[in-house]
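Sequence in, structure out. First:
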Amino acid sequence: MREAVASALEASRSAGAAYADARVVESREEKLSVRTGRVEGIESAESLGIGIRVIADGAWGFAATADLTPDGIRAAAREAVALARAAATTVIEPVRLAPTGLYQDVWAGPCIIDPFTVPTEEKLALLLAADEGLRAEAAVRVSAAHMGFLHIRTMFGSTEGSMIEQSYHESQAGIVAYAIGDGEMLPRSYPNSHGGQAVQGGWEAVLALDLVGNAPRVGEQAAALLSAAPCPSEVTTVVIDGSQVALQVHESVGHPTELDRVLGDEAAFAGTSFLGLGDLDTLRYGSDLVTITADATIPGSLGSFGYDDEGVPAQRDFLVREGILAGFQSSRESALAIGRTSNGCMRADGWNRQPLVRMTTVSLEPGDWTFEDLIADTERGIYFETNNSWSIDDRRLNFQFACEIGWEIENGKLGRMIKNPNYTGITPEFWGGCDAICGPGHWQVWGIPNCGKGEPMQVAHVAHGAAPARFRNVRVGVGR
């Protein structure tokens, strides 16, 4: 891998590049799923290739190949330079990059038990046992359990002198029960919806979820939802669980603070942003309790790494500090628009894609409440748990979220169960209503391995730390 990167950089310089970087990416993936007592699928895939990014005549060029022979690498490098020169005919301002250090380093993510060494039979046995536990309730007519594993090894080098090797494992697992009755099909998931929980780590991370032990409770709640009360339509106080707060952060803070969206460089697929450059250090994004960071240094998070795909070190930076917009997620190029250096947010989905500004671990920093005290302090409202669906406009301003389950809060106590609870809001107003956040003991990092952006579309693996939080004056029970 090191030789391939060095060859690509040399070939790029020889072809006339003023700057070049190259990434060799080797990946291995496995997915297993069962549904209602039967094995649904077992998939595996491997990939190896190199992506070469250059600046020539003041413009970017990119080419990639799975042919890692010297001739294949040289051909890709020449193609990248030729594409840059073609792009230069339409460039208004030449590309400039904010400075960064030069690094010779090796980084690895945490992993105790390599999941690819665990027999397939053992993985399927765990999934089938969890799936069976979900169907202990007669109303649960459909059930599913799944897990997936990823191993990535990369080598990055640049003509500025960096050469960085990185490797990590990701593990993901989850279960879902579907209760059917009276014309309704209601899901209940654990530990999260839309794929469960995903972390950097090995087989030990899946075992820690205790899917089998939690399956009966999940099935019971799914069945109970059939007779639960509908969500009332009103403006009220809401308490939102950590996993849903994480998705709220993702959609209404993570995406709009990506600097390429603010600058209009990303618009076609995922949209732009309601934020402008002039909002930095002035816009009130939320209440004084709302502090949100982008932190790529948290061990075990999907949004963690040693260096991004421009060779910029992982770092912790403030996006919102005590309610005020404090920063954007940037690249070496875009950071110059705000007079800063890159905070290390450029990542690519594999060797055949260019890096884009992507979230790292964007988190709502914890407060100091216990969950019990937070509920006890809430006279009336609704507690929301586990996302079911989401919708937000392309500027990330107006949104609606629905959850799988909720409970009424009356006189500081959780009351009757609510099905299909949902809420709507406008981003700064919603975060402005945050008046309590649970403390570090309730704070957890939630992995989101399916964040889409760009054309051609890239899927990023990101994460968000969050704890249950309370929001005042929220519209709930929006009609469909």
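Second:
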Amino acid sequence: MYYEFISVIKRNRVKIIVKQIDNGKKFFWSIIPFWGMDKETITRLLHEGIPEED
């Protein structure tokens, strides 16, 4: 079984995945950033804005 948690840190979203096998302990499985898309260049963006000013 997998559990998914979503967190927002400043303006960035991340998913935390926790896994549980049968009735055993739950353990950290993965962290997945939320990627945005730059519509002009069609590339993935993790951060938006100007980092020096954020």
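Remark: Strands lie at 2-9, 12-20, 26-33, 36-38, 43-45.
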